[in-house]
Design brief:
Layout lengths: L2 H7 L1 E3 L4 H25 L20 H11 L4 H23 L11 E2 L2 E2 L7 H5 L4 E4 L5 E4 L3 H10 L9 E2 L1 H15 L13 H7 L3 E3 L6
Parallel strand pairs: 4-6
Antiparallel strand pairs: 1-7, 2-3, 4-5
Helix pairs in contact: 2-7, 4-8
């Protein structure tokens, strides 16, 4: 066995069991329902917006969403996947250059195809919540509030006396559900694995998520 084959053999792909894949979809749907309710109450619409949230620099933090993303990527035809992969490689290179200057990248997501997400049903939790006001209670008890996109902030400033008067979606329970799902996927050894902090482009270029294979399985 070559050194390259040995290194590969030591890694095991993280695959979502069907029940966890379905649960991620349920979490995503709950986020979508909450988003639509708050957007309707505020009067927010993305129609004819001059901005595009797909160029926001998001990093994602779970193996479960990474694995779910790859469930969608594997359903694409070969040409589409190759095209997206090349864009992802460009994204990784360009974002590294921008980050090296101390700035935050503003690059189009490699999944964006002619203005639409090529993996709309598999887009991640952060992608689904972007735009509306939201709140979050951290594990340490600290409460946080996010104002939403620039169009949302304009509507809120014209419609409400105080920003906090506007309706906001509480993200806390959905994040807790995702964290619990991640624990079930990774098991008791979760704390031993590297933390995920990757853009969608990183996840595409690096391939499906993997972890070190236990010695007994090599």
């Amino acid at each position: 066995m070559s050194n390259k084959e040995f290194r590969t053999a030591k890694q095991k792909e993280i695959e979502l069991p069907p029940e966890l894949s379905r649960e991620i979809l349920e979490i995503y749907q709950a986020m979508q329902d909450g988003y639509e309710k708050v957007a309707e109450d505020i009067g927010l619409s993305c129609r004819d917006c001059p901005d595009n949230c797909c160029d926001s620099y998001f990093q994602h933090h779970t193996y479960s969403e990474w694995a779910y993303l790859w469930e969608g990527l594997r359903d694409l035809d070969g040409k589409t996947l190759d095209r997206i992969t090349e864009r992802a490689k460009d994204y990784v290179r360009q974002s590294a250059d921008v980050l090296a200057t101390g700035d935050r990248p503003q690059l189009m997501c490699p999944l964006n195809e002619d203005g639409l997400c090529a993996l709309y049903q598999h887009r991640m939790l952060i992608c689904r919540m972007h735009g509306i006001p939201a709140t979050l209670t951290r594990p340490d008890g600290q409460s946080m509030r996010f104002p939403g996109c620039f169009r949302c902030q304009e509507i809120v400033s014209n419609k409400y006396e105080q920003e906090t008067d506007a309706p906001a979606m509480d993200r806390t329970q959905l994040f807790r559900r995702l964290a619990a799902l991640e624990s079930r996927l990774m098991g008791e050894r979760r704390h031993l694995y590297p933390r995920v902090k990757k853009t969608i482009a990183d996840m595409i270029v690096e391939g499906p998520p993997t972890i070190a294979t236990p010695h007994c399985e090599r």
